[in-house]
Amino acid sequence: MSSHLIRQPIGGRTREAKDMNIKDLTVLERASLLSGQSMWDSRGVKRAGIHSFVLSDGPHGLRRQMGSGDNLGIGKSKPATCFPTAGTVANSWDPELAKTMGQALGEEAKSLGVNMVLGPGMNIKRNPLCGRNFEYYSEDPQVAGHMAAGLIEGIQSQGVAATPKHFALNSQELRRQASNSIVDERTMRELYLTAFEIAIRQAHPWALMTSYNMVNGTYANENKHLLKDILREEWGFNGLVVSDWGGSNSAVAAAANGSSLEMPEAGFDSMRQIVAAVRTGELSEDDLNARAAEVAQLASLTYDPNMDREGLLSEEQIRKHHAVARHIAEESAVLLRNENTCLPLAPGTKIALVGDMADTPRFQGSGSSKVNAAKDESLLELLQSGQSNELDVVAYAQGYKRNGEQDQSLIDEAVRAADNAEVIVACLGLDESSESEGLDRSQMNLPQAQIDLLTALKATGKPIVIILVAGSPVSTDWIENCEALLYIGLAGQASASASLALLTGKTNPSGHLAETWPIAYEDCPSSNWYPETERDAVYKEGPFVGYRYYISANVPERFPFGFGLSYSHFTYSKLSVDEHCASFTVTNDSNVDGATVAQLYVSAPKGGVLRPTRELKGFKKIQLKAHESQEVRITFDQYTFRHWDTNSNSWQTESGQWTIMVGSDARTIELQSPLDLKGSIEAKPADPALGHYLTAQVKAVTEDELAALFGHPVVRQGTISVFGDNDPISSWKDSKSGLARFVASFLTKHEAKQEAKTGSPDLNTLFVLNMPPRAMAKMTNGMISSQMVDAIVRIPNGHAWKGIGGFITGFFRNASANRRTRKELNHE
């Protein structure tokens, strides 16, 4: 593999990372490079000059832990800037803004001693209840792909590796390490993989992280179709593939099928398995060399002899990046309602500030992405300290308890606070326990205590402005009770000052929703089968996700994909289309400078293959002065007209009359024009066996129609009769072993008790409940071997004593083997 080479632009120049002659390393040394040395460090080979490198969570801010650390955001980490989460930044529809954020992240990574940032998160938002949606950009691959590309380019401009994740089809947190995402090839490629393809082809990330789940029966971290056939061969990715923490199943299968590094410290057992597999021919030496070279090259690409692993941010960085975070938050906020031009608030307006989140802000989600914010601020603090002389705060009231507990006295206090106010500004939203890695949301509603508060405030007759804090859509049945609704999202550590600028008109809202907000959860296409509680999660809705469903099935939504209001008003005109691009004019015909997002949608020729009614294929954020016009040009590219043809297993374009549309959101088409296109194949009518799919009525789809979508009957796993090493601990509740049932019951009750006590989910316990036993061999620095896992699995299968005995025997055998391996690796 001495010819293996990565060439990537870094800071305007090209750095070449030539591997040393990997073949000169022993097989064990090569195998050692394929697993971590600690929770956050890779393993190096000192004699070969291959340095270890530091990995850190960081989709929206560095979580640089010291010491042993953890992977769930529980332990203490170094102060860093908490930027808006991906789900919020996506609402800016501005890849250049994402790039600016990436540059700041990369700069902070170097200051904190980090070589590789684990982000961006870019999975498609299949369902609004996914607990990790706040970490993901969009329901659409164009938005997700281009926003991720911007962040990647920014991070890597600083000589730090970016790591888009989770590849692929990570759509639920329940059973996330033991879930099997079953999806048809067309839907997988056109919807769930296209975002990754865009980011990889455009931004050339140096690394990529696989997801915990299986994809069509094979774990993502060892999935040849994903990692070799598509990622490496089709897309030309030549970087490092890293497992999610504890997400490696078989170290041998991972190396054989394109995954380079399993994290965290899997210990010597994985190394021995790889060495043995090479000796028996189960793993080719070429594959081992390729994986070892990828690790060595990442180490070379990111090596900086001046990097201080104990470093901290400077005061100047904290100040500068807080301003960057504020600007991003301002650009990402979405004005969802503004009756009677309630906003912006005029100078001197007397306001009553209501809501616990105005005093104790929530600006990020829970889990591995949780940042120890270098600076914090609250709306109450800013207003009371006079940082906005334009508004007169006559009173503040808490209004509700954060955990949702009912307290009428708080509502009464808030109503009294409104007595002398002209406008009520209420900070409402979801609390910390509602959106977190490790668990999915149970429903879309705001806490009833907040809705009751809003009802009481409406009765005062005062105009109400809501600042809404949430990382994902919420039900808004209460929307008629407010005059203005400003969706700030999870906007990072500067969310308060950003909100203030938006309220007063210093900043004109320009965000547009990157996901559909349904009227009710039951309207969601996958609501009847999400989340899947057993192993097999069948993506029965096919391509009809988000706006693709609502528009194709003619289901009304509360706020359509791409929606966003402004203090300005924009009109569209003069659409011109040819085979290369669409051009049109956007005019700000108001007296206020502002920005909007022009969105390009296409509809395929009638009578062709199954497709949604329209699909986003391009967009552009436009800044316009008052009464200014600008010609906008959106170029067609390789993604604009293609579909995956299952007969030829290739991308094809149908000939015929396409419709090119320009919209201010997915539902509101401002301009449209036909385009006669000569494609690679003639339009072919969709298979009538698809039945309800032809009208997007996915909730009525039959098993035969599902089989037509997949091209074969979909087989699901039956009830577990024998527990294996890939069945989660939570499934032990159905074991015939009393000991196994006790373990599952104890953990479930302990988690519920801790959440009730702290108001936040117990992520460690949830991780264990969702964890299959095989992950124990990947998360314990070699203390537990695969042989010991086999013994553990005997317990839920009714052989407790054999399991315990085998575990003890395996412990001593593993300890002895580890001593021998350590000596061999150190050449003792």
Question: What would a concise description of this structure say?
Answer:
Homotetramer. It is built from 21 helices and 28 strands.
Description of the molecule:
There is one protein chain. By secondary structure, this protein is of the alpha/beta class. It folds into 4 domains: 26-64 and 77-302, TIM Barrel (Alpha-Beta Barrel), CATH 3.20.20.300; 333-515, Rossmann fold (3-Layer(aba) Sandwich); 568-686, Immunoglobulins (Immunoglobulin-like), CATH 2.60.40; 729-825, no CATH class. It is globular, with a radius of gyration of 27 Å. The two termini are 28 Å apart.
Task: Pick out its properties.
single chain, 828 residues, alpha/beta, TIM Barrel, Rossmann fold, Immunoglobulin-like, 4 domains, six-stranded mixed beta sheet, 28 strands, 30% helix, globular, disordered N terminus
Strand order of the largest sheet: 11-16-15-14-12-13
Which shape, going by the Cα principal axes? globular
CATH architecture of the largest domain: Alpha-Beta Barrel
Q: What's the CATH class label of the largest domain? A: Alpha Beta
Specify the structural class: alpha/beta
Separation, N- and C-terminal Cα atoms: 28 Å
Rg on CA atoms, Å: 27 Å
Low-pLDDT stretches? 1-19
CATH topology of the largest domain: TIM Barrel
**Biggest β-sheet strands, sense, barrel:** 6 strands, mixed
Mean pLDDT: 93
Q: For this entry, what is the oligomeric state of its chains?
A: single chain
Q: Report strand %.
A: 15-25%
User: Can you count the beta strands?
Assistant: 28
Helix content: 25-40%
Q: Helix count, per DSSP?
A: 21
Report the CATH superfamily of the largest domain. Glycoside hydrolase, family 3, N-terminal domain
